[in-house]
């Protein structure tokens, strides 16, 4: 397989039970098939420290145009997306096979910003509360007022 970023040959590596393909001597990026990213994204999973030792060139030639999936035979263009709403790392993903391309150091940044799912969820809840708590509280009060009016109307004393 060729690197989608610099066209160097990707070299297979094993991180515990996970097989990844790294761009040795090129840009230092990593290709992860399908669900492999979920097996390495938390700080306690796998030996991702070895991915910080990938030999790479300081000035690699970036391939022109959008990067293409190194795995798919149809060579789908990779899409850039945020890894997680509260983890500010943009990764590339193949819409065909679901594989992920991580530039050099991105896995380390993912693991440093949110070392596990519980931390990610707690940070996401905090952001949600900061963004919507006041608005939701006001809407809840408004709905309570409307409910009270409806109850009074439904259960009013019959008029003679």
Question: How would you characterize this protein structure?
Answer:
The chain is 32% helix and 18% strand. It has helices at 36-40, 106-113, 117-154, and strands at residues 11-15, 18-22, 30-32, 79-84, 87-93, 100-102. With 160 residues, it is α+β, with helices and mostly antiparallel strands. A six-stranded antiparallel sheet has the order 1-2-3-6-5-4. Strand 2 (18-22) and strand 3 (30-32) form a beta hairpin. The relative contact order is 0.15. It starts with 10 loop residues before the first strand and ends in a 6-residue tail after the last helix. The protein has two domains: 11-115, no CATH class; 117-160. The chain is elongated and about 85 Å long.
Supply database-style keywords.
elongated, 6-stranded antiparallel β-sheet, 160 residues, alpha+beta, 2 domains, 18% strand
For the biggest β-sheet, the strand order reads 1-2-3-6-5-4
Number of domains: 2
Percentage of residues in strands:
15-25%
Q: How far apart lie the N and C ends?
A: 87 Å
Structural class: alpha+beta
Let me know the average pLDDT.
Answer: 87
Low-confidence stretches: none
Topology:
Layout: E1 11-15, E2 18-22, E3 30-32, H1 36-40, E4 79-84, E5 87-93, E6 100-102, H2 106-113, H3 117-154
Structure described in brief:
With 160 residues, the chain is of the alpha+beta class.
């Amino acid at each position: 397989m060729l690197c989608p970023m610099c066209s160097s040959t990707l070299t297979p590596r094993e991180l515990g039970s996970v097989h990844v393909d790294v761009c040795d001597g090129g840009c230092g990026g990593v290709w992860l098939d399908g669900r492999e990213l979920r097996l390495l994204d938390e700080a306690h999973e796998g030996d991702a420290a070895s991915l910080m030792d990938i030999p790479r060139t300081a000035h690699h030639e970036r391939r022109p145009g959008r990067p293409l999936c190194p795995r798919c035979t149809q060579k789908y263009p990779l899409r850039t997306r945020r890894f997680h709403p509260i983890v500010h790392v943009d990764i590339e993903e193949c819409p065909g096979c679901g594989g992920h391309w991580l530039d050099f150091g991105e896995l380390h940044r993912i693991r440093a910003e949110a070392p596990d799912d519980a931390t990610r969820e707690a940070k996401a809840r905090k952001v949600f509360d900061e963004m919507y708590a006041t608005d939701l509280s006001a809407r809840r009060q408004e709905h309570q007022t409307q409910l009270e009016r409806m109850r009074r109307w439904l259960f009013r004393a019959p008029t003679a």
